[in-house]
């Protein structure tokens, strides 16, 4: 293939490996928002996407899919264990989410992280045309920007960090903190979800590397004694709002929402939680609050049902195995205490669903509970808002989710304050229609005026404007 002018580098490719009923292997487009956002850019720019297919030990040659050139990076079973499950998801993930679970610092994992980041950087360098734009995604690939800059100084390099960047006091635990900062600073533009994340990053750069930072600009020394400028600022990600609205307006989806309510025994109120099964999401906190409201007699199981969709995630990492056990124990206890023959307290679904079913659930839910203890953005909050074309429903939103910076008309809560969370749930259940409408209209304005397309355009414009601003000392 021709070399590409625009290259995305992400841990995963934008496709899923599907085995058909007849055993035939095909590819299907992944449902994620990033894929949708970058689709037009990839097509127009004749782009390439470098990433892992999601399964170990698969040797797949580069191939075309839906107008995009896909470049698979092979990960062995050992790479998956050490780089993906180990360093990415048992070191960086818990450390960057405020140490909700204890991060493990393993030198063997760090070796694997460097080795695999090098493999992604080499694959990206090989497919990039002269002066191409390369956009690296997320915490699994923090060393790739610097590796690319060293091998291909002609490239314009962007990096977007989808998860939080922690306060300096936590980040400084990382034994390889300087290498990670240097890795990220290989990019011309380093994007974060929140202003606070960009601030935490700039502080870490000042404290660890002693580089000068001014507003969003960072002065980075080059090897030859000159300096260059990098930009580190917030670019809050969003969703493809119109596709959610379109589904929410479809008759089939609306009929399915009615059917969901019926199948739950037509309770007066449905509370909904939708998360990957992850300890950052505060699933246990919301279950505790709901269970206590039933215990206290402030709500009855006939009137208020709680639906929790917890999609399977990182199932071989110890903290996730333990979390699943704890959640399922809590569900069993609450249901055992409160279920009747006709009504269940918590309808718990350890499954993932297609987008149509999710929008039907959003339409069926009177109250959406987003109680994350820490979350880069939380797109579920935005999906719920975009889907409520009827301007009804109440969003209860953790102040520790990035979305809270934008969605000021939600009922904002501190998930650690179980008393406050219980009161917020009651307030949401009892909220008059007029207030629901007022709040939902204001939330919708924000989500509809800043979509994932705006996000990628803003980032790429900043990258374009910022590249090549050399400074000499
Ligand atoms: O939120 C960070 C993130 O990497 C998302 O980009 C992704 O959808 C999710 O976590 C799932 O992660 P994994 O690739 O580990 O299944």
From TrEMBL:
The lineage of its organism: Bacteria, Bacillati, Actinomycetota, Actinomycetes, Micrococcales. Belongs to the glycosyltransferase 20 family. Pfam families: Glyco_transf_20. It comes from the Bacteria. CDD domains: GT20_TPS. This is Trehalose-6-phosphate synthase.
């Amino acid at each position: 293939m021709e070399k590409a002018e625009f290259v995305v580098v992400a841990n995963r490719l934008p496709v899923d490996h599907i085995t058909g009923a007849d055993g035939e292997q095909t590819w299907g487009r992944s449902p994620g928002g990033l894929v949708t956002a970058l689709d037009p850019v990839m097509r127009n720019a004749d782009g390439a996407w470098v990433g892992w297919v999601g399964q170990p030990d698969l040797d797949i040659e580069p191939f075309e899919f839906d107008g995009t050139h896909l470049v698979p990076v092979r990960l062995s079973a050992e790479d998956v264990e050490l780089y993906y499950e180990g360093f990415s998801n048992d070191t960086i993930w818990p450390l960057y989410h405020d140490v909700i679970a204890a991060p493990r610092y393993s030198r063997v994992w760090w070796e694997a992280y460097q080795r695999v980041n090098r493999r992604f950087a080499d694959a990206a360098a090989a497919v990039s045309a002269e002066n191409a734009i390369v956009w690296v995604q997320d915490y699994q690939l923090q060393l790739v920007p610097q590796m690319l800059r060293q091998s291909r100084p002609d490239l314009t390099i962007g990096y977007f960090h989808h998860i939080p960047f922690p306060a300096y006091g936590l980040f400084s635990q990382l034994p390889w903190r300087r290498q990670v900062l240097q890795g990220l600073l290989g990019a011309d533009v380093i994007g974060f979800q929140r202003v606070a994340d960009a601030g935490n990053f700039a502080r870490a750069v000042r404290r660890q590397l002693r580089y000068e930072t001014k507003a969003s600009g960072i002065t980075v020394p080059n090897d030859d004694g000159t300096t260059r400028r990098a930009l580190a600022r917030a670019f809050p990600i969003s969703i493809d709002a119109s596709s959610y609205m379109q589904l929410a307006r479809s008759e089939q989806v609306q009929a399915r929402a009615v059917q969901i309510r019926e199948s739950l025994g037509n309770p007066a109120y449905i509370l909904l939680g939708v998360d990957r099964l992850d300890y950052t999401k505060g699933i246990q906190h919301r279950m505790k609050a709901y269970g206590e409201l039933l215990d206290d007699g402030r709500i009855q199981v006939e009137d208020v049902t709680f639906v929790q969709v917890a999609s399977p995630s990182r199932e071989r990492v110890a903290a996730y195995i333990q979390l699943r056990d704890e959640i399922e124990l809590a569900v069993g206890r609450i249901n055992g205490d409160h279920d009747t023959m006709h009504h269940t307290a918590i309808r718990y679904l350890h499954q993932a669903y297609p987008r149509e079913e999710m929008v039907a659930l959003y339409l069926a839910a009177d109250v959406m509970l987003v109680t994350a203890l820490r979350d880069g953005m939380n797109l579920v909050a935005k999906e719920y808002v975009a889907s409520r074309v009827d301007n009804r429903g109440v969003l209860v939103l953790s102040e520790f989710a990035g979305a809270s910076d934008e969605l000021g008309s939600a009922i904002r809560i501190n998930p650690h304050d179980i008393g406050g969370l219980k009161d917020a749930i009651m307030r949401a259940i009892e909220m008059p229609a007029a207030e629901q409408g007022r709040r939902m209209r204001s939330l919708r304005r924000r989500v509809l005026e800043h979509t994932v397309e705006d996000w990628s355009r803003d980032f790429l414009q900043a990258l374009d404007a910022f590249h090549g601003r050399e400074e000499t000392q």
